[in-house]
Amino acid sequence: MDRKGAMMKFVLIGLIIVFFVISAGLTYLFQNEHAKCLRLQAQVDELTAREKITEGKLEESKKKVSDLTLQLQEAKDRIVSITEDLDKEKAARQDSSRELDQIKADIEQQKSSRQDIENRLTQAQEEGRKLRQRLKELEQKKSELEERLKKLESGASDVELGKVVVNNESAVQAEPGDASGDEDMSEETNGPQEQKGNPAPLANPLEGKVTVVNKEYNFAVINLGEKDGVKVGNEFSVTRDGKVIGDIKVEKVHESMSAAGFAAGLKDLIQENDLVVQKVE
Fold it and tell me: Phi first, then psi: what are they for 250, rounded to 5°?
C-alpha cells in the first residue's frame, strides 16, 4: 500500500511537472503570438495611415489635374481669341496697304496732271510771246503806214507812191485756259466697328455643353462659369438627342467654365458636346 502511494505521488508529481512545463510552453507561445498580433496590428495601422496619405495625395492630384485641364482650356480659348484678333489686324493692314497704294497712284496721277498742266502753260506762254511779238510788228507797220499817209495828205509831190499792198492777217490769240486738274480724293474709313458688349445672361435654367471629359478622375468641364451664375454644388442634367444620360455636380468654378464630377458609371456615357441643363430645385 505504501508502495502504491509512493508510486501515485511520483506519478502525481510527474503530472504536475508536465502540467507546469506545458503551461510554461503555452504561456510562451501565447506571448509570442500576442507580440506577433501587436506587430501585425502596428503594420496594419501604418498601412492604414499610408493609405489615407495616398488617398489625400490622389485627391490633391485630381484637383491639380482638374485645374490644369481648366487652365489648358482657357489657354486654348485665349489662343483662338488672339488668332482671331491677328486675322482681323492682318485684314486691316491689307486694307490699309491697298488704300496706301491707291493714294500713291492718285499722287502719281496728280503729279502727271500737274506736269501736263505746266507743259500746257509753258506752251501757252510761248504762244502768247509769239503773238505779242507779231502784234508789235503789226503796230510798227501800222505806224509806218500812218506816217506815209500823213505825207500824202500834206501834198508832198516829190514823193513817189509805190503800190502798197496790205495783207489782212488775223491773229488768233489762244488764251491759256485754266485746266483744272483738281481731283477730289475722298477717303472714307468708316469701317464697321465691332461693339463688344457683355453677353446677355442665360435664362433659367442655365444651358450649356460639355467641352472636356476626364474619364480617369470622373469629371467633366462645361462652358458655364462664374459669369453665368454657376456656383459650387449646382447640379446639371446631361442630355443627348433629348435623352437624359445622367447628372453632374459642380466642384470648381472659374470665370467662363466649371468642373463637375459624376458617378463612375457615367464615364463611358458622357461625351464632349453633350448638352447640360441646370437642375431647378
Answer: -70, 130
Give yes or no for a contact between 159 and 151, defined as CB atoms under 8 angstroms apart.
yes
CB 243 within 8 A of CB 281: no
With beta carbons less than 8 A apart as the criterion, state whether 176 and 121 touch: yes
Residue 207 CA, distance from chain mean position:
24
Residue 66 to residue 24: CA distance in whole angstroms: 62
Could you state, in order of their start, the residue ranges of all structural domains in the chain?
A: 1-53, 207-278
| Tens of pLDDT, residues 47-85 | 999 999 998 999 888 888 988 988 999 899 989 989 999
Please check whether the domain covering 207-278 is classified as CATH 2.40.10.410: yes
On the question of a cis peptide bond just before residue 201, with omega within 30 degrees of 0, the verdict is no
Q: How does pLDDT run across 242-260, given as a tens digit for each residue? A: 999 999 999 999 999 999 9
Residues 6+ apart with CB under 8 A from 1: none
- Check: CB of residue 251 under 8 Å from CB of residue 220: no
Determine if the pTM surpasses 0.70: no
Query: Which pLDDT does position 45 carry in this prediction?
Result: 92
Helix (H, G, I), strand (E, B) or coil at 264: helix
Task: Please give the angle made by the CA atoms of 207, 213 and 216, to the nearest 5 degrees.
Answer: 145
DSSP-based three-state secondary structure for 33: helix
